[in-house]
Structure formats: C-alpha cells, structure tokens
Amino acid sequence: MITGRKELFSVLFAILGAHILLNFAFDDKDIFWYMFSGSALVLISVAVLNGRVQDELPALKFLLYGVVSGIVLYACFFVGYHIIDLIQPSMTKDVTKLYKNYAPQNIWQYIALILFVIPGEEIFWRGFVFAKLRTQYSVWYCMIASSALYASVHIYSDMWVLVFAAFVAGLFWSFLYYWKKSMPLLIVSHLVFDILLFWVYPLQ
C-alpha cells in the first residue's frame, strides 16, 4: 500500500511539473517551440529516471504497426474534421488558428518535433503515467485517466479543439501501448500522424 501511494504521488508530482512547463510553453507563441522542446526533454528525463518503457516487438513489426496506426488515426481525424466542417463550419476556425500559432514552421522545429517532442510525449504520458497508473488500477480506467491528464496540459492553448484532440489521440495510443507493449511503435505512430497532420495533408 505504501509503495502504491508513493508511485501515485510520483505520478501526480510529475504531472504538476508538466502543467507548469506547458503553461509557460503556451503562454507566448513566439517562444512556444523553444519551451515545448525543452519541456519534452525534461519529461523524458523524469520518465526514464522513474520507470522503464516496454519494447516487446521486433523492428519490422513495430514499424508496420506504427505506420498503419498513424495513418488510421489521421484518417479518423480527417473524416471527423470534414464532418464537423459540414455541420458547424464555425467550429473548425480554431483548427486554422491552431495551425497558425503552434504548427512547426521551419526545419529546426520539425527536427525538434521528431527528436524531442514526439518521443517525450509518448515516453512520459504512456511509458510513465499510463504504466504507473496501470500498477494500481484497471486498464480501462488507466486509459481514460492518463488520456484526460494528457489532454489537460493542453488547456493552456485556450483551444478546446486541441484538448479534445489530445484526449482522443491519448486513448488511441494508450490502447496501442497496452495491446502491443512497444514504445517504438507509439513513437512511429505518433510521428506518422504528425507528419500527415502538419506537412503532407494539413486539416485546413
């Protein structure tokens, strides 16, 4: 019981730190990518020092599952966006604003996204937060709770569309991690999703 409480407190303390870091990152869009990249490095360090990520798939399989799952998630967002645009076009204006304020705009930001941000988010939120909660609670509770916590740090963007998108993506990647137990798979999936979302076929 004492060990369980210590684990829970370590997760809560780490999440509080993530909130502080992301609050600073979203506070000024001119320095967003500097703070966002630095925050990812801090979160990776916290996760690595306090846990161990799983990697139970050979390279060919995690690459295959990663690419396919990233495309599937993007397709879901693509269809959802266009359905909303047909039903309530005003709701998609936040997506345009989101791209303008926070999407990577140059090569160093894409490099930071690939090397620091994507691995940092997956290692911290799925490899650390989800995994630690999983030692105490049921898998479905942990998927929902860890995804809600992941979404919660996006409130500082003042865009509920980003909060909702983070929750949905968090559920998807938490399920993948529970199912396949492979952190490299999640990183590839997240990478494919972001490349499609920001570079190949943006939703705007």
TrEMBL record:
Signal peptide: none annotated. InterPro entries: Rce1/LyrA-like_dom. The keyword Nucleus does not apply. Keywords: Hydrolase, Membrane, Metalloprotease, Protease, Transmembrane, Transmembrane helix. Residues 105-195 form the CAAX prenyl protease 2/Lysostaphin resistance protein A-like domain. It comes from the Bacteria. The chain crosses the membrane at residues 7-25, 31-50, 62-84, 107-125, 137-153, 159-178, 185-201. The keyword Hydrolase applies. GO terms for molecular function: metallopeptidase activity. This is CPBP family intramembrane metalloprotease. It comes from Bacillus carboniphilus.
